[in-house]
């Protein structure tokens, strides 16, 4: 819809009329000329970490990925860091870092996860901002975000301030500069929020057009009382920045009050306006932004550019900004492959139109606002009822009208009550430990970013009222963690959808539970009963829960973790440590280790965010029984609280474990305990050993079910391995015995009996995995590697003849990493054998496709492309006189073809 076609509400003025009014406005500071385009991506995931473990546990709904962060990462965050430009043959002609061209904010909790999970992508994002700063006169693409996505108008003044300060400090520590703008969760805003932003030095924000109430040109000598234009129906012209003066702050300016008797005079007095605090606001183009999220416009870069072009005003103004915004996850996650579309638009389509790709801060530096805006009192982009989506049964986010949201108000009331109770605890006990408890909370982000013992000690030294004892240090950290979880329990996602018992609602209740527990640890207060009473007023749509109190009891209390559970986790896991191929047996590891975890000495291990100091450990086996007894000191890396515990764990075989935990009561008691338990084991009687454990530890026991999910699943796989290996061997034998029969069925094009086809697929999958594991071990031995590749080729041929689909997701990942390792060795290892390595690599790539297991060579493609211009092309162009080197160049370029990289131009120069 063009500006001329927009409907005009009574008493309002059309965008076209406003544009006409603006033609006489001029500003010597307006250096912008022409059309500028900004595409803003709001990248965010709710914090999903278990509040006790500081880690995200496996989420089955995200399968085949570990969790939703990981899934969206591979569908969106990484593809946007390496967005492909393809030719008509599907070959890569360029790789674009979209973050270098788009305006973006990335939630601090998501950035923390990215830093741990994929350091390469994390660095690409930081580099993109630095490059955009270089290109755009010091104004980077990244803007900050309120820390954990709370609805700012519903937060109290202190929480507003902390959210902004944490967001700023997190941004500064990552990007190395102060943020100029800040993204508000759900763009939820009111004037109190604007005041808090201005007080913290934020220059601009981005809002939806529906959040503007009225606007007007700045008063001038020619027009000292310009007319206000009502734009409450999303009619504001989004092609310019606006200045929003905080007129509610006028009363604080006594010098102005003495000379201004009527506030309306201040509104038309240019001099008084200049003395008011203000913030600049950009309004994104609503129709185009909606199309990006809900139509197919972003699937074609030419169509996307055309849609952007439809918003360009043909009114001969000096400059205009077409800004659009959407969830960053649109590009690749919600709309697969669209990261390629915007990449091509950034580097080809937009420049071909003569448009400048920019960001909000850069455009603001070139084109200062010449218009003033007033916003509606309390609004958000995703709720037509102000911010009721996060506090009332307003219908927004409902399940097609089937489910109510009557639980929203009681949930908000319960959490507000809990927040206020925790404030009392924090002030009473915090004043004893901190010079200024609230300043300590505002600066606690420095600890959240770096939990090394040295940094925590420095932080406590800066804020303590006196030299804190070890116990006081623990209480100080408990209080600050209590406040962190009190902020996290207001994360907006908990209210966004239709039902309280969804994962988002459960998650914020888990933060509330942790805050309650920490308050009890410090002050001995029992707040849970009052909290549950208030949650009981929040009706659930799910019959099995009835109300919020039951959601809390069934899904939150059952997930709470104690030191005893951590000790039991370590104890049971210790029985299997020698069978674990991972570098750390009790911490799940993926792309890269948690970079900010403190280093451990040789006597320490880590269970998530707990350091385990193994003081003593003894294990004995007797027949099918295994008994381990140990003494551990567990220390929380978050709060520094610790416990000295003794454990005994008996494995009776299979899935049967009997684990007991108690406090350490002294060396003598511990020695006697060990002696009695191992003496009972000598009788080779499970009953006698369990009886002895009961006499010493009591009746409380823990089992495999009490392990944290990651480790429980690992042990389950280990316990199943022997049985699965036997079955693989049986299927293999059945396949061999019936190979001729299988071939006969296929030769005569008859339906193969399911039992025989399954046997063939399992047998070939088992053989393939065995070969891949051997290849992984022998990858540095050329002859052995060659033999394994030949075996894989034979497996692929058999699978093709028998029409087998190999279901080996682990094998897919292994192949991808093996190819990446071989490619890196070929390109960077001067001591390698080029001829052997490249031939082995080519055949491994070929067989990876022939196995038909869905191989993805994107990372190898990225590695090759990064070396193409820096290494391969210079080599090809400077060694043309040497036939041997030319032959090597041709081989490298042919390898590029196998990786679907366009090298045709370079090949043509060599031929």
Automatic annotation (TrEMBL):
The keyword Translocase does not apply. It comes from the Bacteria. Keywords: Carbohydrate metabolism. InterPro entries: DUF3536, GH57_Enzymes, Glyco_hydro/deAcase_b/a-brl, Glyco_hydro_38_N_sf, Glyco_hydro_57_N. The keyword Amino-acid biosynthesis does not apply. Residues 1-29 are annotated as: Disordered. Residues 137-352 form the Glycoside hydrolase family 57 N-terminal domain. Belongs to the glycosyl hydrolase 57 family. This is DUF3536 domain-containing protein. The lineage of its organism: Bacteria, Bacillati, Cyanobacteriota, Cyanophyceae, Nostocales.
């Amino acid at each position: 819809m063009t500006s001329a076609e927009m409907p005009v509400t009574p008493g309002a003025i059309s965008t076209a009329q406003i544009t006409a009014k603006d033609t006489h406005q001029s500003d010597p500071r307006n250096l912008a000329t022409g059309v500028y385009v900004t595409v803003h991506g709001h990248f965010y995931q709710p914090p999903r970490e278990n509040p006790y473990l500081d880690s995200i546990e496996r989420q089955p709904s995200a399968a085949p990925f570990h969790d939703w962060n990981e899934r969206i990462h591979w569908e969106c965050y990484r593809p946007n860091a390496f967005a492909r430009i393809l030719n008509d043959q599907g070959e890569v002609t360029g790789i674009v870092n979209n973050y270098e061209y788009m305006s973006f904010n990335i939630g601090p909790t998501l950035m923390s996860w990215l830093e741990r999970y994929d350091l390469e992508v994390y660095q690409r994002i930081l580099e993109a901002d630095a490059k955009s700063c270089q290109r755009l006169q010091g104004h980077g693409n990244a803007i900050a975000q309120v820390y954990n996505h709370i609805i700012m108008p519903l937060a109290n003044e202190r929480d507003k301030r902390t959210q902004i300060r944490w967001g700023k400090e997190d941004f500064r520590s990552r990007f190395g500069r102060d943020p100029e703008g800040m993204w508000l969760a759900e763009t939820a805003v009111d004037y109190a929020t604007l005041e808090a932003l201005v007080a913290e030095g934020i220059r601009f924000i981005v809002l939806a057009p529906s959040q503007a109430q009225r606007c007007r040109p700045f008063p001038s000598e020619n027009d000292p009382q310009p007319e206000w234009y009502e734009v409450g129906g999303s009619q504001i012209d989004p092609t310019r920045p606006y200045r929003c003066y905080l007129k509610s702050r006028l009363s604080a300016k006594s010098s102005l009050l003495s000379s201004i008797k009527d506030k309306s005079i201040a509104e038309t007095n240019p001099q008084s306006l200049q003395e008011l605090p203000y913030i600049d606001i950009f309004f994104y183009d609503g129709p185009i932004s909606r199309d990006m999220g809900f139509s197919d416009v972003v699937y074609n870069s030419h169509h996307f550019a055309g849609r952007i072009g439809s918003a360009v005003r043909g009114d001969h103004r000096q400059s205009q900004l077409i800004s659009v915004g959407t969830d960053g996850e649109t590009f690749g996650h919600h709309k697969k492959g669209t990261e390629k579309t915007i990449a091509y638009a950034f580097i080809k389509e937009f420049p071909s139109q003569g448009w400048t790709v920019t960001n909000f801060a850069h455009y603001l530096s070139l084109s200062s606002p010449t218009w003033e805006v007033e916003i509606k009192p309390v609004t958000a982009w995703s709720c037509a009822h102000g911010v009721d989506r996060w506090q009332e049964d307003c219908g927004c986010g409902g399940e097609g009208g089937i489910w109510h949201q009557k639980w929203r108000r009681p949930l908000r009331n319960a959490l507000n009550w809990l927040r206020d109770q925790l404030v009392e605890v924090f002030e009473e006990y915090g004043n004893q430990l901190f010079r200024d408890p609230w300043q300590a909370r505002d600066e606690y982000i420095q600890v959240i970013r770096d939990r090394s013992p040295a940094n925590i000690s420095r932080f406590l030294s800066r804020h303590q009222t006196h030299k804190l004892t070890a116990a006081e240090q623990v209480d100080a950290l408990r209080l600050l963690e209590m406040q962190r979880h009190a902020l996290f329990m207001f994360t907006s996602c908990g209210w966004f959808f239709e039902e309280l018992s969804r994962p988002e609602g459960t998650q914020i209740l888990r933060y509330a539970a942790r805050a309650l527990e920490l308050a009890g640890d410090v002050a001995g207060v029992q707040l849970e009963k009052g909290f549950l009473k208030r949650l009981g007023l929040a009706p659930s749509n799910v019959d099995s829960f009835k109300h919020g109190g039951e959601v809390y009891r069934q899904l939150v209390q059952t997930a709470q973790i104690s030191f005893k559970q951590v000790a039991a986790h370590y104890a049971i896991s210790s029985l299997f440590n020698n069978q674990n191929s991972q570098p750390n047996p009790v911490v799940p590891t993926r792309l890269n280790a948690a970079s900010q975890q403190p280093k451990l000495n040789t006597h320490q291990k880590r269970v998530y965010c707990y350091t385990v100091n193994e003081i003593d450990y003894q294990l004995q086996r007797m027949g099918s029984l295994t008994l381990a007894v140990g003494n551990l000191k567990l220390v929380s890396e978050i709060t520094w609280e610790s416990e000295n515990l003794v454990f005994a764990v008996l494995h009776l075989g299979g899935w049967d474990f009997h684990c007991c935990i108690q406090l350490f009561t002294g060396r003598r008691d511990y020695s006697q305990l060990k002696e009695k338990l191992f003496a009972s084991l000598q009788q080779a009687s499970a009953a006698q050993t369990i009886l002895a454990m009961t006499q010493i530890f009591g009746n409380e026991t823990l089992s495999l079910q009490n392990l944290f999910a990651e480790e429980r699943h690992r042990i389950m796989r280990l316990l199943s391995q022997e049985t699965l290996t036997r079955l693989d061997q049986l299927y293999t034998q059945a396949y061999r015995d019936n190979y001729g029969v299988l071939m006969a069925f296929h030769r005569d094009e008859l339906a193969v009996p399911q039992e025989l086809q399954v046997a063939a697929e399992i047998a070939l999958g088992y053989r393939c995995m065995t070969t891949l594991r051997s290849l992984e071990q022998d990858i540095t031995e050329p002859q052995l590697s060659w033999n394994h590749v030949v075996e894989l080729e034979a497996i692929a041929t058999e699978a093709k003849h028998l029409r087998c689909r190999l279901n080996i997701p682990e094998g897919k990942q292994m192949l991808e990493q093996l190819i990446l390792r071989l490619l890196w060795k070929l390109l960077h290892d001067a001591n390698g054998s080029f001829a052997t390595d490249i031939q082995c690599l080519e055949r491994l790539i070929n067989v990876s496709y022939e196995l038909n297991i869905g191989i993805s060579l994107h990372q190898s493609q990225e590695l090759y492309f990064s070396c193409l211009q820096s290494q391969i092309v210079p080599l090809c162009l400077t060694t043309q006189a040497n036939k041997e080197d030319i032959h090597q160049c041709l081989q490298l370029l042919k390898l590029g073809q196998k990786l679907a990289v366009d090298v045709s131009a370079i090949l043509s120069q060599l031929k």
